[in-house]
């Protein structure tokens, strides 16, 4: 039975009802000596508490998309086939353009909770050794005959930790927020790509860690190449952006600054610079990795300022302060815009930012479609 969805949620509600009815019906009717009756009543109380906690967890999980499956929740999913040392460029010394063409089979997503226009595939990363699902949303113009010779800009989107690759479409309501703006011409017809980012029971830090996981190469090499090989898009960085919220915001800013040859713009919604802001981050556990994967350090230590535009949003120390630190450190052609938000570190706040964020991306990238 799926962890998410209405079926399991309804079952948990039914269990709560049973847990309430049991003591009402049986409290004074339990047979046996006092010790046995006391034990029975204690079990009914514990059952009521457990079912109450369960129904709250399922409701929160469904609303926020924290865990997509039982394997994700229990940490039993294995999405890493190998984690070789791929070197500083994350390709094992290979040229991305020389890698074999990746042709995928796609299925149209029929889940109404995810909106329309989505396709899904299971990708085995030839470089990273990561295996996971990738969701792709195509704008209405993509299948329009008038655009059949056009190449489209891409935004790769990252969820927080824990988080699901469905979140941008289910909990952030991307289509409802942004599709009307695309149809009206206020926002460019971006292709939106949402790959799996939860690759184990810990946050990867969006880094390559030999022997553990090559999350950087999964997102910036394998997923990008798969998209360019299967859709009408260009691999040129001026046609690619990356966006995320919470831990995904940290990843978006980090990967954009680290790979200006792959992305020209990034959006960080309530992001942070220091990996230690996420206690379960693999990059926060090692002092060297923590420094190397600090977004501010990456920006300051770049040999030349990266040609990347970043939008950082948040409230106080949650996104806004880290954004200001990046803005102060940025030198042309790097550009950092910072926007204050209110409402806290929650999904509705990030969802409300999407129209502004995608209008901002359209202004920065100026894609010609």
TrEMBL record:
MF-aspect GO terms: hydrolase activity
UniProt keyword list: Hydrolase, Membrane, Transmembrane, Transmembrane helix
TM ranges: 6-27, 39-60
Pfam family, one: Esterase
UniProt name for this protein: Alpha/beta hydrolase
């Amino acid at each position: 039975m799926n962890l998410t969805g209405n079926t399991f949620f309804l079952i948990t509600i039914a269990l709560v009802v049973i847990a309430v009815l049991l003591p009402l019906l049986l409290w004074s009717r339990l047979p046996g000596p006092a010790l046995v009756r006391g034990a029975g009543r204690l079990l009914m109380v514990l059952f009521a508490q457990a079912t109450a906690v369960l129904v709250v967890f399922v409701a929160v999980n469904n609303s926020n998309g924290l865990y997509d499956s039982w394997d994700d929740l229990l940490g039993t999913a294995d999405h890493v086939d190998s984690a070789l040392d791929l070197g500083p460029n994350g390709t094992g010394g290979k040229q991305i353009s020389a890698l074999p063409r990746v042709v995928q089979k796609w299925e149209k997503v029929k889940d109404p909770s995810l909106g329309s226009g989505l396709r899904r595939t299971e990708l085995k990363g030839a470089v990273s050794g990561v295996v996971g699902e990738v969701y792709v949303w195509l704008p209405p113009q993509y299948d329009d005959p008038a655009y059949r010779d056009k190449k489209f800009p891409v935004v790769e989107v990252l969820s927080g930790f824990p988080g699901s690759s469905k979140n941008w479409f289910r909990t952030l309501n991307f289509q409802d927020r942004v599709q009307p703006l695309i149809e009206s011409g206020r926002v460019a017809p971006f292709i939106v790509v949402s790959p799996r980012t939860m690759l184990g029971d810990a946050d990867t830090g969006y880094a390559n860690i030999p022997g553990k996981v090559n999350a950087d190469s999964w997102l910036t090499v394998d997923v990008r190449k798969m998209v360019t090989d299967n859709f009408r898009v260009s691999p040129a960085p001026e046609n690619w952006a990356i966006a995320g919220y919470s831990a995904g915001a940290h990843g978006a800013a980090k990967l954009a600054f680290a790979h200006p040859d792959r992305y020209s713009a990034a959006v960080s919604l309530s992001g942070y610079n220091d990996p230690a802001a996420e206690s379960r981050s693999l990059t926060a556990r090692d002092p060297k990795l923590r420094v190397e994967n600090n977004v501010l350090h990456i920006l300051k230590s770049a040999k030349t300022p990266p040609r990347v535009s970043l939008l950082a949003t948040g409230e106080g120390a949650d996104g806004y302060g880290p954004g200001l630190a990046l803005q102060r450190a940025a030198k042309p052609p790097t550009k950092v815009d910072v926007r204050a938000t209110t409402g806290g570190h929650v999904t509705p706040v990030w969802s409300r930012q999407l129209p502004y964020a995608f209008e901002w991306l359209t202004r920065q990238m100026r894609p010609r479609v």
